[in-house]
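A further point concerns the way the authors explain their paired sequence and structure data. Since the whole study asks how a given chain folds, the encoding of that fold should be made plain. A single example would do more here than another paragraph of explanation. An entry of this sort, consisting of the sequence and the corresponding backbone structure tokens, reads as follows:

_____
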Amino acid sequence: NGTATAPIVIKNNGVVNVSSSIQTDNVSNLTISGNHVAGVNYGFTLENIPYRAIVLLNKANAVTIEYVSFKNVKDYAISGNTNDLAYNGTAATRTEGLKIMHCLFDNSGPIAFGGNLDKNSNKDTGFYKEVEISYNTFQNTNWGKLCVFTNVQDYNIHHNIVNNVNTTNNEHNGIFFMLGNGDFHDNK
């Protein structure tokens, strides 16, 4: 865990090929960035992953994933699980500041984060706040949902490109499926 003034930054020195999943548990102020070598667009590549590529277990506050390429990921490219974290209105009981930017998702599964707001039982779990999904390219996949957050506030989804998805029309096309509120603009 880093701090706001001293974050942990994992950066590439050339192209880093990852052939198995990356998993974190309760992290904060962490940046994984693959743009530290001139001429390399995606300094981290996660390719031919049979299950999930990046899994953020429990809280992941102020986490940024940028300039990463996901290719041939069979299940979720990036996912998280905070479903057991009950939100009570405080920052300690939510995940906030997650950013996924400048990434390539090619023949890969979606970004998927759970959570639930059940008005009938007054349960609010797995709550995300201030999520940014921007400048990403999603292409060549039969998934119909590419980015899913089921309990989110103040999202900002912008400048993403979606091309050649769900051509067999075998799944619901909820391309960006957000349950909550926020801004959605300049996507193509």
User: Anything to note?
Assistant: The chain has a mean pLDDT of 94. The first strand starts at residue 8 and ends at 11. Residues 149 and 183 are 14 Å apart (CA to CA).
